[in-house]
Amino acid sequence: MSVPPRLPHLAVALDTPDAPGPFDAQHYIRLARLAERGALDFVTLGDTFARPGPDALAVLARVAPHTDHIGLVPTVTTTHTEPFHVATAVQTLDWVSRGRAGWQADVSRTPAEAALFGRRPAAPADALWREAADVADVAGRLWDSWEDDAEIRDAATGRFIDRGKLHYVDFRGTSSTGEPFSVRGPSIVPRPPQGRPVIVVDATEDAARETAAARADIALVRAEDPDTAATARAELRARAEELDRDPDRLRVLASLPVELPAPGDAAGLAELLTDWHTTEAADGFHLRPADPERDLAHLVEGTVPVLRRRGLLRRSYPGATLRDHLGLERPASRYAVRTGEAS
Amino acid sequence: MTTARKQLHLAAHFPGVNNTTVWQDPRSQSQIDFDSFVHLARTAERGLFDFFFLAEGLRLREHKGRIHDLDVVGRPESLTVLNALAAVTERLGLAATVNATFNEPYELARRLATLDHLSDGRAAWNVVTSSDAFTGENFRRGGYLDHADRYTRAAEFVATARELWDSWSEDGTPRPFAHSGQHFDIHGEFTVPRSPQGHPVVIQAGDSPAGRDFAASAADVIFTRHGTLEAGRAFSADVKGRLAAHGRTHDSLKIMPGVTFVLGDTAAEAQEKAHHIRRQQVSPQNALLTAEQIWGVDLSHLDPDGPLPDFDPEPEPKLTQGRTRLGDPQEIAGRWRALSETKGLSLRETVIEATGRQSFIGTPETVAAEMDAFVTAGAADGFILVPHLTPGGLDEFVDRVVPLLQERGAFRTEYEGGTLRSHLGLEQPAARPVWKG
Lengths: 343, 437
Prior knowledge:
The complex is a heterodimer of chains A (343) and B (437). In chain A, 40% of the residues lie in helices and 17% in strands. Chain A is α/β, with parallel strands linked by helices and 343 residues long. Chain A has an 8-stranded parallel barrel with strand order 1-2-3-4-9-10-11-12, surrounded by 8 helices. The radius of gyration of chain A is 20 Å and the shape is globular. The relative contact order of chain B is 0.16. The longest helix of chain B has 19 residues, at 147-165. Chain B has 2 domains: 9-262 and 362-424, TIM Barrel (Alpha-Beta Barrel); 283-354, no CATH class. Chain B has helices spanning 34-46, 78-85, 105-118, 133-136, 147-165, 209-218, 229-241, 267-281, 284-295, 329-343, 347-354, 364-376, 395-407, 420-424, and strands at 9-13, 51-54, 62-63, 66-67, 93-99, 123-128, 177-180, 185-188, 201-204, 221-224, 254-259, 261-263, 320-321, 360-362, 382-385. In chain B, the strands form 4 sheets. In chain B, strands 1-2-5-6-9-10-11-15 form an 8-stranded parallel barrel, surrounded by 4 helices. A 3-stranded antiparallel β-sheet of chain B has the order 4-3-13, with no helix packed on it. At the A-B interface, α2, α3, α4, β6 and β8 of A face α1, β4, α2, α3 and β8 of B.
C-alpha cells in the first residue's frame, strides 16, 4: 500500500466545546505556545454570533506577538459581515503575524443571528455557502490587488507607489438572499507576507463542499472512520480538478474530536493517527480537544514524540510562514501574471 | 486655597496616509510592517502617553480618476493591529478609528469589547462617519447617506453599542437586548461580557455644529484640528458649553487637537528643520496636485517653481475623491495670489507657506512651555501628536519634551491606573442594574 508522500499535517482547535470562549488572553497564549512546542502547523479558533465568546481574529492577533511559528486560523463569518472588512482584517493578521495567517470561512445560519443585524433574513445552507464562496473569491482578489513590488518610493518622480501595480477588482457577487453586491477595490492594505493567507473551509456538510473545492487551501472533514474521510477527500480532489485546480493544492484534513484524560491516551491517539495516515484517509489531522488545556498538554507531551519517532512529524519548523509549514507555495498576484502576459 | 496643577494628556497618531508623513527621508521606514507599529507604540508607552491612535482608510484616494501616488499609500485594518499591540504594551490606550457608516453596531460593538478585554481595559473607538458613494463602492451595504443622516446614524450607532455593552450584568449573565430606531432594528443577546472599562472610550472628530452636538452628547474625547490658542479656546468654550444640556460635567469631555511639532537645539535650528520638512512634505508634484485640488483642473503643464495659475478655479472642483475638501476654492485662490504677490513666492513656495505649518516649532523648553500654556489657558486638555516620520518620529519628543513637561508638573511621572479611562480621568460608566424589557 502506498503512503502519501508528505508527512501528515497536524493542527489543533483551541475552542472550549460547550462552554463560552474565555476572554482572558493568557489562556489562548498558553495554548498556542503549547501547540508551537509540538511544531504543529496551525491552531484554529472558531467564532459565531450565536454564542458567547470573543472575536476570534482579535484573539489570534493578540496571540501573534507571543508566538513565532505556529499558523493562526480564526473563523470569520461571511453572512452578515462586509467582504472588504473581512479581507482586510485577515490580511492585517498576516502582517502582524509575519505571514502566519489563515482564515476559516463560515456562515451564520440562524434567524437569531440575522436578528442581531436586522439587514437580511436567514437563508438556506446552499445560498449561505455560495455567498461564502463569493466572499472568499473577492478576498483573494483584494489580497492580490497590490502587486508585491507596488511600493517604489521613487524620489525623482515623487511617487510612493507605482499605481500601475494596484488593481481594481470590480467584483460582482450574490448575497445569500439573492441580491447582487459589488466590491471595487483595490485593498487598502498592501500585499501581505504570504501573498494570500491560507483559506480553510469545513467541508463536512454537503452544502460547503463546492465552496471548499473552489476556494479552500485546506478542507476539514469531520469523519468517524478513515473510509468516510478518504471518500470525502477523493470527492473534493475530483471536484477541484473539474474546477481547473491542481488537486494537490487542496489539503484535506480529517477533523477529529479527541479526549485525552490520562497521559497514556496520548500514545493511543498516535496509533490511531498512524493508522489513518497509512490508509491515505487524509493529508493530515485537525484535532478538536474536549478540554484544550488538559488534552493539548497530553498531545504535545505524549502523542507528538511518538509520531516523531515514527518519522511522521517534524521536530522543528523548516520555514517561517503558514504556507511554508503546509508546503503551499506563495502565489503570485493574479494581476501581475496578467500584466506579464499582456506585455 | 491651592488649585491642582492642570495636567495635560498626550496621544500618538501613527503617521498616516497624507502628506504630513515624509517618506523621502533616509530614516523613513515601512508604514505597514508590524515592527513600525511596535516601535511607535512602545515609544508612546515609554513616554507615558494616554493612548496610541490609528486612523482608518476604506478606499484609496484618487486624483484625476487615478489612484493618488504621491503620499504614503496603504495601511492595516486598525482593530487587528491594536489587538496585536496589546501584546507588546501594558498600559498604553489603543484607539481605533472605525466608520459608523460602513459597519453594523452588533459586530463593531463586539470587536471593540473584545479589544477592551484582551487589552485589560485600554480600548478606544474614534467614531467617524462618511456619506460618500465613492467609499461605498467597496461595501455591499452601499455608500450613500444623506449628509444630514450621517450624525443621526452615528449617534444611534453609538447609543446602540452602549446598549450592547450594558447588556450583560456585572456578575456575568447575558441579558437580552432590543433596539428599534430609525437606522437599526435589532434584538438578541450580545456575545461579550461587560468589558474592563464598561464602555471603551469614545472619541469623535467632527467640527460642524452637528458634529459638536454629537460630541457633547456621546464622546469622551474630541479630536480637533484647532491648533492655535485662540481657535482652541473658542472651540473649547463652545463644545464644553454644550455639555450641560446633556447632563454632563465640564471634565467629562477631553479636547485634544491633532498637532505637529519640530524640535531643535536652538529656535533657529528648529525653524530651519521645519522648513526642510515642509519642503519634503510638499514635493514639486504634491504642490501641483494641491493646486489642482483648488483649481479643479489639470495643471500638469505648469512649472511648480513658476507662478500660480493666471485663471480662476472651477466653482465646483471634482478632481479629487476620498479626501477632505480644503475650503471655498475662489477664496483660497484669492488668498494664495495675495500671498504669492506680497512675498514673491512660486507656486510650490505658496503651497508650502499657505498649508499646514507645524503647530509647535522650537527648543524642547519652548515647546513644553507652549503646550503647557495652551492647556492652562483652557484651549485644550492635551494633544494628539502627529509625527512626520515612521517609526522614529516620536523618539525625540519622548526623550526631550516629556521630561520637561514632567518637571513643570504638567504631565504624569507614572501611570496611576491600568485602564485608558483612568489615564484620562474619565469615570467608569455605571452598569445598568436591572433589565427592564
